[in-house]
Amino acid sequence: MREGVGMLDACMDADLITEITLQPVRRYDVDAAIFFSDIVLPLKAVGVDLDIVPGVGPVVAEPVRTMADVEAIEDLTPEHVTYVTRAVREVRAQIGDKALIGFAGAPFTVASYLVEGGPSKEHAKTKAMMFGAPEVWSALMAKISAISAAYLEVQVDAGAHAVQLFDSWAGALSRIDYEAMVMPWSANVLSQIGAKDVPRIHFGVGTGEILDLMGRAGADVVGVDWRVPFDEGVRRVGPRAVQGNLDPTLVFAPTEVMLQRAKLILEQGAKAPGHIFNLGHGVIPTTNPDQLKRLTDFVHEQSVK
């Protein structure tokens, strides 16, 4: 579908968004579709000069470093993303009794891309701003949290049943720094979208030490990646539903090994108030689609027992 089409171009084409969103539902009969987009799409929509470079990720032409840079970023309105509204409505018209999950990037992760100018392992420039220019950091987080909330609202107003706030890089933070300088901004997003009365999922990568805080930020469901044993993740999250957490590489293992681990995760997830089974992060591009079908069929079979 995307051959010859850039990632962000695909994310701004309502017909492509609709088709790509629905393909996994048709192929695997999963219980929910995830809206096809990217966490930096709202920035592109408001005029930030960025692109997703194959093999690299999002690259920002002029990184954000000053208060003037922050003030130059526009606020997001529904008019910026009319293709999103159209695509959500079209997906809803075709999805039948399945759910549609909208999503947005969490403030820290999106801000990190802006400050670093692209992906980073150390997030040194991001943390330098966070610690050394707290007034600029607060202004940037306020700006991004407003954009993320507005983007989620557009999806919910168009018909999304639930939303997910995706904090890819939150695991790079210590617990004390997350709680003081990041959690309040994620809480703003979750609080604002909470007024729409839809379930809110909060997911991050490498966030085992802050799972309880991610829940306290306002999530109804907390995603647990594969690095944390799922029963321990359930304990840390506390009285909330959980999402997760099969290691994506187990899909490359022999089928019986993959299903044995999936069964264990289902048993552990049953101890939580609710459990959305999924991979502990994204699908690896070289994954065998037939193996995913075996996995989803198995989970459905186990779930109705």
Please provide a written account of the structure.
A seven-stranded parallel sheet has the order 1-4-5-6-7-8-9. 49% of the residues lie in helices and 14% in strands. The protein is globular, with a radius of gyration of 19 Å. It contains 14 helices and nine strands. With 305 residues, the chain is of the alpha/beta class. The protein has helices spanning 7-11, 14-28, 41-45, 67-71, 82-94, 107-116, 124-132, 134-158, 175-181, 183-194, 211-216, 230-237, 255-269, 289-303; strands at residues 32-34, 50-53, 57-60, 99-105, 162-167, 200-204, 221-223, 241-246, 275-279. It folds into two domains: 7-223, TIM Barrel (Alpha-Beta Barrel), CATH 3.20.20.210; 248-305, no CATH class.
